[in-house]
Every structure is written in C-alpha cells, then in structure tokens.
Amino acid sequence: xxxxxxxxxxxxxxxxxxxxxxxxxxxxxxxxxxxxxxxxxxxxxxxxxxxxxxxxxxxxxxxxxxxxxxxxxxxxxxxxxxxxxxxxxxxxxxxxxxxxxxxxxxxxxxxxxxxxxxxxxxxxxxxxxxxxxxxxxxxxxxxxxxxxxxxxxxxxxxxxxxxxxxxxxxxxxxxxxxxxxxxxxxxxxxxxxxxxxxxxxxxxxxxxxxxxxxxxxxxxxxxxxxxxxxxxxxxxxxxxxxxxxxxxxxxxxxxxxxxxxxxxx
Length: 265
What we know:
Order of helices and strands: HHEEEEEEEEEEEEEEE
CATH superfamily: monomeric porin ompg
CATH class: Mainly Beta
Helix content: 10-25%
Number of domains: 1
CATH architecture: Beta Barrel
CATH topology: Porin
Largest sheet: 15 strands, antiparallel
Structural class: mainly beta
Shape: globular
Number of strands: 15
Distance between the termini: 44 Å
Number of helices: 2
Strand content: over 45%
C-alpha cells in the first residue's frame, strides 16, 4: 500500500471516528427498542445526512489493492416517499504508481411508498446516476437510469429485516466509454441487543450485467443509536468478507463504517 493511499484512508476514517466519539459522549439516555428500530429503518420518515465509508485493503487481481470510498448520503423521507442521494469521494488504484482520488458519479433514487402488505413497508421508484466523476478512473462517463425497490419489516420488536434492490444501465454519455449495467441487492438484518446497541449484516451484492462480474459479501458488525440534542445518531462498524466473486477488481475484504445523523419528523 502506498504512503499516499494510507494517508487518504486515515483521513477518510478520521472524519467518522471523532464524530462517533463526540456523539456518544452526548448520550442522555438509552434508546428504546422502537427508537432503535426507527433509526435503522430506511423507510422511516426522517431527514438525515449519512457519512458512510468503505475501506478496502484487499482487491482481487490488483497488485497495490487499497481503495477507499466515503459516501455522502442526504436522505429525505416522509410518509409518502423517500429520496436518497449518494456522492462518493473515492481513492482507487490505477496502473500508475499513485492512486487517483476525487469525486465519483452522483446517484439518487426517489421511492414512492406503497400501502403496507403483510407487515412489510415497500417503496419503489426511479433511479438516476450522473457522470460527475472528476477522473476517468472514478466514474463511468455515462448517464444511467434505473429503478430502486426497498422492503422492510419489523419481524419482532427487536429484529428488523429487509432489502434494497437497485438496477441501472447507461442511456447516454461518452461514446468512447463502455456501456454500463449494474444490479445490486442489499439484504438488511438488524438485531437489537439492548441499551441502544445492535448487531447488523448489510453487505451489498453487486452484479455487472454487461460483463457478468459479481461479488457477494457477508458482513457482521455492531452499531449504537443515541441522541445528541434533537438529532438521533446511528454509528456502526461492519467488517465484510467476499464469499463469492467473479472478475478482477472485486474487494475480498472491506470495512464498512458509518455515522448517520437523523432528524426525526
């Protein structure tokens, strides 16, 4: 791993860890099971800004494999819809001695909430990805359209399950760049263990529908929900191991960390 890459990764994680520690010192009381479930429910009516980071020290088929991606995710959710945007700030290895860092492609979806069915909340709607990357290596160079679907259920008062599935494909952009197609599926499993703490598994399965490359990670981590003033903070750390994959460039291990700052309505 290059010195510059390691420094960029430490800087990205340094954005999250101090915020987690400061917020935890502000805890006024243990969160109830209902509050923790709401904080982890992607369809709960909240306004939030999520800081989520993937640190990837091991990548299949890459000699200097380290990569890092800090995801800035604004969320606006009501009883009728949810909007979520994602802007990556990434460092990726290249054929050159030094990695490339900068902004990636911005994506967003707007899911309309359907009437609950069998205890499940469901949202479905359009997705768009824009070629905002500041370097060729950080984005697709394509405009992409697709669809997102979210389903969540409180199986018990302390166990939440669900999934987020997205599909997107290129429709315009740089003619010299390859067409893109991406299918993702993120199973969600959140089990509360008391005092605002919970264990989680949220690895994102990714399939490149153009090349057939794919990765299937398994994650197991821990998080805590707590308050700081009006805000509800949700901090977590989840190691993820790739259990199935095909193709060069898939992560073999990654560390997923996050701090979600939520303002319930």
